Sequence to fold (220 residues):
Amino acid sequence: MGAGQSTSQSQTPYRGLHVLRVTPSSPASFSNIEPFFDFVVGFEGDSLSSEKAIDASELEKIVESHENRVLNLLVWNSKSQRTRVVPVTPSRIWSQQRSSSNGAQKSPSNSQPSLLGLSMRLCQPEAATDNVWHVLDVLEGSPAESAGLVPMGDWILGWSGGVLGAENDFYDLVEAHVDKPLRVYVYSFDFDTLREVVLIPNRHWGGEGLLGCVFGCVST
Fold:
């Protein structure tokens, strides 16, 4: 189910829906869609012309019309620079089961469960991740060490709220989360994997800085 058929498209799409998060146990989680590196650029039967921007409203209608039926999404990957076909079956059953297991958490009556379980934003893939943060050093006993950040091998691509556009965005975000959990998405160059890491910035860990970590901002 996770396999996707590769196409011959290698040109960067003009616009796409940047995948920021794949919700666990959702229909998308059973595919090979990869957060931050993948962009939904259309659906099978749609044009892959670089001059045509994805129509998000049209895609939403197509997803709804394929509820409980296989839909082949066209997904462009920024690492491979290729577009592939990813089969996924839109469904509301997973979110209803999730709500039932949460018990007390009730959804508003006018809200509709996600059919795919994807958090996405419309953007230009070329500029989607202009700034990433390379972990250069991690101090012993620091919040960064406790969170498992690996010096030289790890790169912070974004956080649970999305991507970080400007160089100072990450530092502002850390300041805003003093003594509070900050969920960031970390790419391991050594293992070619993306993982979610919880950082808790604080001033009482016994060393310098809120994280005890040295970063280098890299413009891609």
Q: What stands out?
A: The chain is about 15% helix and 35% strand. The chain has a mean pLDDT of 85. Helices lie at 56-65, 93-102, 143-146, 169-176. The radius of gyration is 19 Å.
